[in-house]
Amino acid sequence: AQSVAQPEDQVNVAEGNPLTVKCTYSVSGNPYLFWYVQYPNRGLQFLLKYITGDNLVKGSYGFEAEFNKSQTSFHLKKPSALVSDSALYFCAVRLPNTDKLIFGTGTRLQVFP
Amino acid sequence: EPEVTQTPSHQVTQMGQEVILRCVPISNHLYFYWYRQILGQKVEFLVSFYNNEISEKSEIFDDQFSVERPDGSNFTLKIRSTKLEDSAMYFCASRRGGGRTNEKLFFGSGTQLSVL
Lengths: 113, 116
What we know:
The structure holds two protein chains of two kinds. By secondary structure, chain A is mainly beta.
């Protein structure tokens, strides 16, 4: 079955430190990969995507993600965390022949001052 | 930036009642979606809609559910006879379509449906 795993329910990091939010996937074919962020009482907001090309993709708010085909991972990273980055982060995949996103369970990022 | 708007933000209904959740997608978008998120669980795909018809639906989207784009601007999700397990946050989303640069989904803020 197609699935997305986010192994950490919560990630805590101090402001100014680098952060990583992990995502692995299990799908057949060549998926499109996404990260979305959800702030309290808001809908999901697009951060970045990988479709093809360079394995390191850059997105909104200084976030980037690295696609690793051999490890089937797409970890979200940021060199220097901000308190305002605290939110719920979702990894998602879409297969090219479908129109639905399969989401991970989400990782709550808490950045402490 | 343009937004997807959803109304109402909260909806409380009795089990067995019909509810209609409303969404106004971004005006030049062509693909429309409903997702839902049960409290504490993952976001789940319900249905996608393109060119005035359902293009894909999940197993959750049974005969109790229907979608409609009645007037070229609104996109609605109807649940005919609500069950307790339909309680969730329902998100509408849209995207422009037409190539890889338009893969980004825009989500509304959601409608919290509570079935009593």
